[in-house]
Design a protein that fits this description.
With about 500 residues, the chain is mainly alpha-helical. The protein is about 75% helix and about 0% strand.
Length: about 500
């Protein structure tokens, strides 16, 4: 049932309802998060499966099973193994810039469609891989799919949503990421028990399921009014779409704001050049720092390598995969909690509280490993389970803060004229540092040992301080009026000015 509301923000009111078309289209588009999460979760599981290691990474298998002199922290230190995981993200980085042009010139819907199709082909190649070259090529195509999906889906969700519910709807993307991770962990846990040794093929090929949903669903998605106005001279069509998704004919105020934003957008021919202008400085800083910090929380260390980490501290193969399932459940549940509270408590409260929670859990994990796990032998079971509990606490902190908000905040702060370019920068920075973390973690674990967790804990302190001083609250602010938030902020108003374009002092919600 639709819920009537009026949104008063910065002196303006938008009329609208939470309509079924918004809910259904957002659910389909958010499937892009499932393909992202599935790939994050699946790679760590298959790289801990013996048949997979024997076929593609025999040197790693030999070190794991036969080399008794090698340190616990160094058993999986292989650049080829990490390339399997990280190649996807370098491909996604490059694809995101092509996705920016597609999203800007043709709309959000075509970009989502391309992402789903590329991921579908990559899943087929991975499941059928006969050698390392097929395996890596499949990962590259998965990266192309994720590059397009991550560039377009958060924008699509933010543009379809009412300002009052934008946080919850956009966080649906991260919820789907969590569902994807959990699904991958469950499939890995079941596939590992297949005796004939082809369980890893099922794990990799099952990525085709969410990819098919996204690809087929994209054909039926409505285009956002923002994109229709930006790419079509038929404004009446855009207005009709806006009326449909808002459930009311009275959309004049919002429609006029969209027209104004589109006119400014169309006057800019080189968005990547224009984003360097002083008036866009806050948005550019956030486009770079938020995805940078998101990766330096260390979450992908857990997401990619949780089974390997648990093997390192002494759990068996099956128990390691089961522990990853538990972590997936915690992450998904916590993201759902974030959806319920993000538009009530705001972005800053969740960022800061989640940062504090992650910091203390990481310091405790590193301390336990420092005092209880040597270079050889195993840690006692009670400490293994304590580490598992602390990792769950850490994952929960990430899942209701930097996980969903790392995608939500960048997608809602960019003006339309630089939105596609800025989102590409966000995705590219995210993929670049995901690649770096994925490529270096096993080597870092080998050399830093327990200090790896102190390293990421230190970065969590830095990012929490950054949010406290430099990130303004953006809840309930219409996207097309977001620039006024920066003009009122204690620091950023010195750079962009403290007056609105029409000379009125902005009023924050």
């Amino acid at each position: 049932m639709a819920v009537e509301l009026q949104i008063a923000s910065h002196g303006r009111e938008y009329n609208g309802k939470m309509t079924s078309i918004v809910i259904l289209s957002s659910m389909v588009a958010a499937t892009g998060g499932i393909i992202f999460g599935y790939d994050i979760g699946i790679s760590g599981g298959v790289t801990s499966m013996v048949p997979f290691l024997e076929k593609f990474f025999p040197d790693v298998y030999t070190k794991m099973k036969q080399d008794k002199k090698i340190s616990n922290y160094c058993k999986f230190d292989s650049q080829l193994l990490t390339t399997f995981t990280s190649s996807l993200y370098i491909a996604g980085l490059l694809a995101s810039f092509f996705a920016s042009s597609v999203t800007r010139m043709f709309g959000r819907k075509p970009s989502i469609l391309v992402g789903g199709a590329a991921f579908l082909v990559g899943a087929a190649l991975g499941g059928a891989a006969l050698n390392i070259y097929m395996l890596i090529l499949g990962r590259v195509l998965l990266g192309v799919g994720i590059g397009f999906a991550n560039q377009s889906v958060p924008l699509y969700l933010s543009e379809m949503a009412l300002p009052r519910y934008r946080g919850a709807i956009n966080n649906g993307f991260q919820l789907c990421v969590g569902i994807g991770v959990l699904s991958a962990n469950l499939i890995n846990f079941g596939a590992e028990k297949i005796k004939d040794g082809y369980g890893w093929r099922i794990s990799l090929a099952m990525a085709a399921v969410p990819a098919s949903i996204l690809t087929l669903g994209a054909f039926f998605l409505p285009e956002t009014p923002n994109s229709l106005i930006q790419n079509s001279k038929n404004h009446q069509k855009a207005k009709s779409m806006l009326q449909s998704i808002r459930g009311t004919n009275d959309v004049e105020q919002e429609f006029n704001d969209l027209i104004e934003a589109s006119n400014m957008s169309n006057s800019i021919k080189h968005p990547f050049k224009n984003i360097l202008q002083r008036k866009y400085r806050p948005q550019l800083v956030m486009a770079v720092t938020i995805p940078f910090f998101q990766q330096l929380t260390g979450i992908n260390v857990i997401s990619f390598y949780a089974p390997i980490l648990f093997l390192t501290i002494g759990l068996g193969e099956s128990a390691s995969l089961l522990s990853a399932v538990m972590i997936g459940i915690v992450g998904t549940t916590s993201t759902f909690v974030s959806m319920l509270i993000v538009d009530k408590l705001g972005r800053r409260v969740l960022f800061i509280s989640g940062g504090i929670q992650m910091f203390f859990s990481q310091i405790l994990i590193g301390s336990i490993m420092a005092f209880q796990l040597g270079d050889h032998g195993e840690i006692s079971k009670k400490y293994v389970y304590l580490i598992l509990v602390l990792i769950c606490i850490y994952v929960a902190g990430f899942a209701w803060s930097w996980g969903p908000l790392g995608w939500l905040v960048p997608s809602e702060i960019f003006p339309l004229e630089i939105r596609s370019a800025a989102q590409s920068i966000t995705v590219a920075v995210n993929f670049l540092f995901t690649f770096i973390v994925a490529q270096t973690f096993l080597s870092m674990l080998c050399h830093f040992k327990f200090g790896t967790f102190f390293f990421f804990g230190g970065w969590v302190v830095v990012m929490t301080v950054f949010v406290y001083f430099l990130l303004p609250e953006t809840k309930n602010v219409p996207i097309e009026q977001m620039e006024k938030v920066w003009r009122e902020h204690l620091f950023w108003k010195r750079i962009v000015g403290d007056k609105s374009d029409d000379g009125r002092q902005p009023v924050l919600p």
